[in-house]
Structures are given as structure tokens and as C-alpha cells.
Amino acid sequence: MKVEEFKKLAEKYTQKKVNSQERLAMDIFFSKMQEANKNILVPISSEKGEKLFYNIQKNLSVNRGKRTAIKKYLAIAAGFSALLMLAFFTGMFSNNYTTVIAEKGEKKEIKMDDGSVIFLNGNSSITYKNNFTEKRTVKLQGEAFFEVARDESHPFTVKSKDLKTRVLGTSFNVKSYKDQLAMVSVNTGKVEVTPLQNPENKVILTKNQQATFKENHKPKISKGDSEDFNAWIRKMIILKDTSLENTAKIIENWYDVDIQFANDSLKQLKITGKFNDEKLSNVLKSLALIKNLKIDSTNKKQIIIRANPTN
To answer: Of 90, 114, 146, which residue sits at a domain end?
Structure first.
């Protein structure tokens, strides 16, 4: 990409005209930039790309408290992220890596070379080496359900922001959105899950066990029908005493909308229910009825949840 095209992409970000793919690329870029002492998400074949990456990283660190500098480098980073986004369309990085993105409101099924199948939920991405059968490692942002082909010589590993999940051959769900507690749920077989910050809290999970991970806490182990935790692959939303805040996040990723609360106290309301491939309008009407809420739409993408004034 030429310098002028690069500048235009940076300007596009500063004018808030980026699409959801570019936003997700930004999330990936900054998440991995913060782990610069470890590994970046994807290899950058271009020498200029690598130099730009580390310059952005260095200057963001030096100028962390200065808004003007941050804005400047955010704009540059946006342009670089757009370069990553263009690579996403082809699914290739330096002929070594593949990244697949499911936007909000979208779900994808990926068939791997080893026979495994990955179901990717909305607002999520996976990255893996093209010679996948040699080292079966996937980097996940968001949520995915894995049906892993058994290969005792090559363990299957899922790396997410907080966890490393390792199996030989099984099926399980990993939920690891950046603004939610990480959770692993097992459908079949045995799964080893290691918190990256506290590896001593490693757990082994079996069928119908779930583990929820909170920073600096021991994982919370529960038991329940794991089919409920990956119901999204069957176009179902199942809520069991779920906070309205987490319900809103599910709806945002499912229908590609933005939900705001008029009062933060509403976020703690608990919801139980099941929606089978319902239209957004039906889901919102049900929530309003169940909890006596008033739900307004400023436009097709913006939703506001309020307490019903008749209460």
C-alpha cells in the first residue's frame, strides 16, 4: 500500500468512518501491542510494517498521559490496522498465517486441515499458522466452539487473552471477550485450562463442566448442560439468571447493535429465557415485558434501555 493510501486510511479513522472489520482489527492490534514483550498476533513481512509497529508502540508508551500524542498515534495505528484488515479479506498473513473474522451479527464455520471444525461467534476472530497440522495452535479473540479431531501426537491449543486451553481430541466452548469474564465449557472429553496470569490455578474439566475465570481469583467450577453454553451455534440464545448487562452484550454481538442503559442499576437485573432464532424486535419486546422495561431505538443500530416510567 502506498503512503498516500495509508494516510487516507488513518484520516478515515479520525473521522470515525471505520467499519466493524476495521474496529475489530484495531482491537486485535492494540491487544497484541500491549503484549509486545511476548508475541504479536501475526507476523509482519514488510520491514516498513515492523518498523512502524514498534514506533507506534514506543511512542504510545512514552506519551501515555498526553491526549494529543495519543490521538496522533491512534490515527497512525488505525491506518496500520486497516492494512491488517485488508489482509483479513484474503485470510492470509505473509503466507504463514490465516485470520478469520466473524463480525457482529455474523457466525462462521471453519474446517481445519486436521479435520477439526471451529464455529466462530459474532465479534470474534481466530488466527492460526497455515501448516496447522504440525502445530495445532489457535489464537482466539471473542467466542468459539471447537470440535477437535483427536491427534495424541499433536495437542490442540487455544490461546485467548487470559487462558491457554489444551486438548487432544474433544469438543468445548471458549468465551473470551475483552469486557467479560472468560469461560470454558466442555461438551465431550477432557480439557486442560491454564490461566496465563496464575498458571498454578490450572484446572481439568470434563463433560458438562464449566469454569469461569476472574483475574487473580481461583476459577469457579460449575456443572450444567454444556449444550446450553454453545446454543448459539444452533441459533439459540439461552439465558439462565443472566444479568441484563451480559444479556445486552450477547444481543449486541448477535444482532450488530449498540445498547445503552439510562440507569446503571438496570444492568444487574437477572434474566432467564430462551430465544430460538428470533428477530431482534421480538427479543427486545420479551425483555421489556419480563422486566417491565422501556426499550427505545434511536435508529436501527442504537438501543436505549430505561426503567418503565409507569413503575
So the answer is: 90
